[in-house]
């Protein structure tokens, strides 16, 4: 079965075409700077033949045009690999959240309406997703469209860990609860551990990137996560605050800050950027800290402290730990963050192999053989996670 996976960013589109079962990637494509006239970049690859195409300074004014670029390449006489686009049987989308639909769902009008209803929960994501889904549904009639919601993997977190201490009616009537995100990534890590080490294990997956979250996994199932109901929660992110005392909002209003200033601080100029004053990109923050910038070091320390805080709590939830996994942009690349986190976990029997940690390039075991917890760096593959869930879905 040919499955197309689509990952929509605020100004980008990524595609991968899979042959399932077998996890084989046939083709991938990427559009950067969607919405720009004469400055977009389009890339296409046919992995079967090695055909590569990179077009710069393109006019790709909207998602429709970006999608067209990729679909046309798939059936083009030169470099294409499908005789007709109808060979695609299913399209799987990475989707964030939809009212009443938190798992893997066919993208019907009702599910799309749920995404509209909960735009306030994912204001940066849902509008772009709705637009690309609607456009592709129009362009590929007869194909099954599935939304693999980022909340899906966290379905089985026990209720007592999902509930906030709010009036119970808020949960019943409005669905107020911790939903959790980064499901495609954490579930990929859970699958990987299961395949490699067997289904029975206790793990903590640290997805550290532009957005970051920690997930406790028991025997392949998510049992706790650092994200709350919205994406403005949990660890500090590149430029968002993460966990926040809600009354600070009201307090800042009485201090004379406008709503816009407060919103911007929470979602655009907070997080690593706000604390360091340098950047939301950890590479620059690390560079500045190494040169003696104390605020940059402080930002790293706050970030690490949040990670350790959740790992400690989840360690107790799980009743011990077999695997600690670092993944995503920071987790896969920052030996500094991995070292600082692991140094704080000595009480849990974590012993890092400093050399392996420093030389690790994206994948490897970085703990000493004597460590009670195996520490692993595993590159995440969200698209593959989505392709698998899309393939497994039974109508
Ligand atoms: P997103 O969450 O936006 O998908 P990624 O998972 O790709 O992002 O993570 C991006 C982040 O990874 C960058 O902002 C940067 O902070 C971090 N990163 C990438 N490479 C390195 C590196 N070598 N050292 C430290 N941080 C890195």
Write the layout of secondary structure elements.
Blueprint: E1 2-8, E2 12-19, E3 24-32, E4 36-46, E5 51-60, H1 63-74, E6 88-95, E7 104-106, H2 109-117, H3 126-139, E8 144-149, H4 159-162, H5 168-174, H6 183-197, E9 202-208, E10 212-218, E11 221-225, H7 247-254, H8 259-267, H9 271-276, H10 282-290, H11 294-318, E12 323-327, H12 328-333, H13 335-343, H14 354-359, E13 364-365, E14 374-377, H15 382-392
Parallel strand pairs: 1-6, 6-8, 9-12, 12-14
Antiparallel strand pairs: 1-2, 2-3, 3-4, 4-5, 7-8, 9-10, 10-11, 13-14
The site of adenosine-5'-diphosphate (ADP) has 13 residues, from helix 10 and helix 12.
What does this structure look like?
By secondary structure, this protein is α/β, with parallel strands linked by helices. The chain is 38% helix and 23% strand. The chain contains 15 helices and 14 strands. It has helices spanning 63-74, 109-117, 126-139, 159-162, 168-174, 183-197, 247-254, 259-267, 271-276, 282-290, 294-318, 328-333, 335-343, 354-359, 382-392, and strands at 2-8, 12-19, 24-32, 36-46, 51-60, 88-95, 104-106, 144-149, 202-208, 212-218, 221-225, 323-327, 364-365, 374-377. The strands form two sheets. The chain has an eight-stranded mixed β-sheet with strand order 5-4-3-2-1-6-8-7, sandwiched between helices. Strand 3 (24-32) and strand 4 (36-46) form a beta hairpin. Helix 6 (183-197) crosses helix 15, helix 10 (282-290) packs across helix 11 and helix 11 crosses helix 13. The longest helix has 25 residues, at 294-318. The radius of gyration is 21 Å and the shape is globular.
């Amino acid at each position: 079965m040919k499955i197309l996976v689509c990952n929509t960013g605020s100004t980008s589109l990524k595609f991968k075409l899979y042959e399932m079962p077998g996890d084989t990637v046939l083709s991938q494509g990427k559009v950067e700077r969607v919405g720009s006239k004469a400055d977009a970049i389009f890339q296409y690859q046919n992995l079967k033949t090695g055909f590569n195409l990179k077009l710069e300074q393109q006019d790709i004014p909207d998602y429709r045009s970006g999608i067209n670029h990729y679909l046309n390449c798939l059936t083009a006489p030169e470099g294409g690999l499908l005789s007709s686009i109808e060979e695609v049987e299913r399209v799987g989308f990475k989707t964030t959240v939809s009212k009443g639909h938190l798992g893997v769902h066919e993208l019907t009008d009702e599910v799309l309406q749920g995404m509209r209803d909960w735009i306030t929960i994912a204001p940066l994501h849902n509008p772009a997703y709705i637009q690309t889904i609607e456009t592709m549904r129009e362009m590929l009639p007869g194909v099954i469209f599935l939304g693999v919601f980022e909340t899906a993997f966290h379905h089985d977190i026990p209720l007592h860990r999902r509930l906030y201490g709010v009036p119970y009616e808020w949960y019943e009537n409005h669905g107020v609860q911790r939903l959790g995100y980064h499901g495609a990534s954490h579930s990929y890590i859970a699958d990987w551990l299961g395949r490699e080490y067997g289904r029975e294990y206790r793990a903590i997956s640290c997805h550290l990137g532009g957005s970051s979250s920690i997930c406790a996994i028991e025997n392949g199932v998510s049992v706790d996560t650092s994200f709350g109901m919205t994406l403005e929660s949990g660890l500090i992110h590149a430029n968002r605050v993460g966990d926040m005392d809600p009354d600070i909002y009201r307090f800042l209003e009485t201090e004379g800050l406008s709503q816009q200033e407060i919103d911007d601080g929470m979602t655009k100029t907070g997080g690593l950027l706000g604390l360091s004053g340098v950047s939301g990109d950890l590479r620059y923050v690390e560079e500045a800290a190494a040169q003696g910038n104390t605020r940059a070091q402080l930002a790293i320390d706050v970030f690490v402290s949040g990670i350790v805080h959740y790992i400690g709590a989840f360690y107790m939830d799980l009743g011990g730990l077999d695997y600690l996994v670092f993944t995503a942009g920071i987790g896969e690349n920052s030996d500094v963050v991995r070292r600082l986190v692991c140094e704080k976990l000595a009480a849990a029997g974590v012993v890092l192999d400093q050399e392996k940690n420093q030389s690790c390039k994206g994948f490897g075991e970085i703990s000493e053989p004597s460590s009670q917890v195996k520490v692993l760096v595993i590159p995440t593959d969200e698209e593959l996670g989505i392709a698998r869930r899309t393939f497994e879905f039974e109508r």
